[in-house]
Amino acid sequence: MRCEEVERELAAPTPGCDRAAMADHLAVCPSCAAWAQDAERLDRLWEATRPAEPSPEAWDAVWSGISAALDRRSLAAVPPPLSQPALGLAEPGGIREHTWPRPRTAGRRWGVGAMALIGLAQAAAILIAIGLAWQPAPRPEGPVADASASAGFVPKVAAGKPGAPRPIRVDRPVRVDAEIDEGYLMVIHTGPAGARVENATPPEMNTGSDGGLVFFNWMESLSTPRVAVR
Amino acid sequence: MTRRRALQIGLSATGLACAGLVLGLGGLRATGAEDDGKNPEGEIVRQVTVLGILATPGGKTSDSGLSEVLPQLKQLLPNHSFQVLDVQSARILTGEAVKCELGHGYQSVTRLVRPLDENGKVQLRCELSLDGELQFSANIRAPINQVFFCERPFLSDGSKLLIGLGVRR
């Protein structure tokens, strides 16, 4: 899997995702692994801050309160019969206060308030989590690489985000022919001074403890065989 | 036991022995082919393993998976921390390659040029590109079953790229 696919999958998991391929990628890609850690942190935060789900009884009470309030409102909208004395208009002495029972709004307020609180808490949790997830991963800071020009190797810093370490680009590719001797640990260096092949054989090599072989075995154990490209 | 019966048993035993001999010779031949690193078509195949490591100067923490080889890495680049960028391994034929995605736009392609030269070595070409632009190209003649490294500046923070390569039959 490529980095973009993994990041997409981390953001919005799909049922058809190849989990094994994703795990393989995460094991070797620090950038995506950091994304995965962020996503996991977001999940944990969500679980920690998620408000308790109201019980079915509480939901029933809220909805019955709402429907009762709506019923009362529709009843209130219907004009009472003219014979109803409560209107007061028929009474001698003038108008008196409406005596229809007023709708009980306390239950409705509680239900609406509870739902608003739950919504606010969820929105706050989501905002905090998004804020944490969008924080850039800490990157190692260090001295800027020597960008002095020399024959065959003219490094320059590639364009990127300001402040973030950027790849070192060369104007002309460095070409080197190297012969690796048997039984030695060789390193091909390419740098401002050009290319050189260094014999980095440790003293204990070839004396029963072959560091190169240990490294080679470890490399192979780490890798997953892949189909070659032609 | 009649002579006829003994003859039948003898012939069966001889048949079984011949079949075993044929199977054994076939197995030996197959094993020999594998030792030569040849596929059934007779082409020489090599297991090429490529590992990309980010070495950061002054860093304190390395990938936990690197603990086994940390002493070797510390010998190569003292006072660095290490992080695995990518590792790939494949059995490839001449002209085929193993690709590693190293992040930040870097990609390495290691191609098998000659699986066996006159000195008994394998010839590889290891190329590193940045956003598709070639950065270095190394023609390498290396013994089989031996690891070696290419090292190069990686990022502007002073970090280095260490590519470990190894070929097996």
Description of the molecule:
The complex is a heterodimer of chains A (230) and B (169). Chain A has 230 residues and is mostly helical. Chain A has helices at residues 3-11, 19-28, 30-49, 56-77, 106-133, 211-222, and strands spanning 155-157, 168-170, 174-179, 186-191, 194-199. Chain A has three domains: 3-49, no CATH class; 51-78 and 101-137; 168-218, no CATH class. Chain A has six helices and five strands. Chain A has a two-stranded antiparallel ribbon. In chain A, α3 (30-49) runs antiparallel to α5 (106-133). Chain B contains two helices and eight strands. Chain B has two domains: 1-35; 46-168, no CATH class. By secondary structure, chain B is α+β, with helices and mostly antiparallel strands. In chain B, a hairpin with a 2-residue loop joins β3 and β4. Chains A and B meet through β2, β3, β4 and α6 of A and β1, α2, β2, β3 and β6 of B. β3 (174-179) of chain A pairs parallel with β6 (133-142) of chain B.
Specify the overall morphology of chain B. elongated
- Parts with pLDDT < 50 across at least 5 consecutive residues of chain B: 30-34
Estimated helix fraction of chain A = 40-55%
Order of helices and strands of chain B: HEHEEEEEEE
Q: Give the count of helical stretches of chain B.
A: 2
Largest inter-chain contact set: A-B, 62 and 69 residues
- Tell me the number of structural domains of chain B: 2
What is the number of beta strands of chain B? Answer: 8
State the total count of DSSP E strands of chain A: 5
Rg of chain B (C-alpha, Å): 25 Å
